[in-house]
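To whoever picks this up:

The nightly regression suite flagged Glycosyltransferase as changed. Nothing in the input moved, so I suspect the structure step. Input below, exactly as stored in the fixture:
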Amino acid sequence: MVETAAALADRGWQVTVTLPAPGPLVRELEKTGVTVEFDRSPVLRKSALRPAGLLRLVAEMVRAVPGSVRQVRRAGTDLVYVSTLTIPLWVPIARLLRRPVVVHVHESERNAPLMVRRLLALPLLLATRVLVNSRFSLSVLTDSFRRLGRRAEVLYNGVPGPERFTPPRTELTGGIRLLFVGRLSPRKGPQIAVQALARLREQGTPARLDLVGAVFPGYEWFEQELRETVTGLGLDDAVTFHGFQDDVWPHLAAADALLVPSQGDEPFGNTAVEAALAARPVVVSSSSGLDEATAGYGGAHRVPADDVEAWVSAVQQIAADWSGHRDRVLDDERTARRRHAPEVYREDIERRLAGIGRRAKA
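Regenerated output under the current build:
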């Protein structure tokens, strides 16, 4: 969202960004020069799948309609851009007011029940255009409604690299330094990283692990369980919990390899791209958008998500052929900069949105 807002503001668009509530995005958005407002448009949650939750969602949407309509009219909106599937009201509001609406899809859950996927995708049938962040995300949408394939286009994320590049170490003195970046949750798989570390050390491969990320409210039990696992495996001196960090680049600079052990579908895999931009080998769960995100990178290993021994083997391969991996990831860094340069994304998104706006006025 921030990259898109910056792209439009830099090119002279008057941009008003509407959020459901204050949060860390506000400061980043305001830096781009856009106007930030708040609207209590309801957010789709899992509770909406239950009868009582669905009734509550419908009631919230009805109450939100007048305020959302006023907001679109007050801003003098020519085009509505929605950056998520989970705030569905803006699509029918835009169509009601005869504004073109573009939905940019960053979510995909192929393993979710078909009813859930169709509920999420239903508003897209009203959209003027749908942008998706990967071919995998597109396939999930068309599995729900085949006709969406006619109005959807793939647009890969722009991913900024580090301000200061730190090349990988020439030697793995003291052992390999592993890094996990992401939410601490069963779905993101930090438990797999911890188990792999334990097996590596048992097998004589010196290694340590840094965990960068925090839990969502309500998942504190998982962090406690993870810490107890670390202690139970005798890894307190080899695992560091850093919590949430705004800037992950210093941690990537200090690491030798990144682990992305997601246990569920990922629509793309920005974290894996960040590993390439930092010139670090990456091991990812072989599924969904992670395969797509790491395609063509010589320093990437793809392994079954829940096969701890496969994760161990991949790390051992990296350590055993460190010189070769070092050469490959330096090539990967150049490839990633070409593929995901923010300036390329900004030009592309602005061109696509401008074209839709012009056609709507014609």
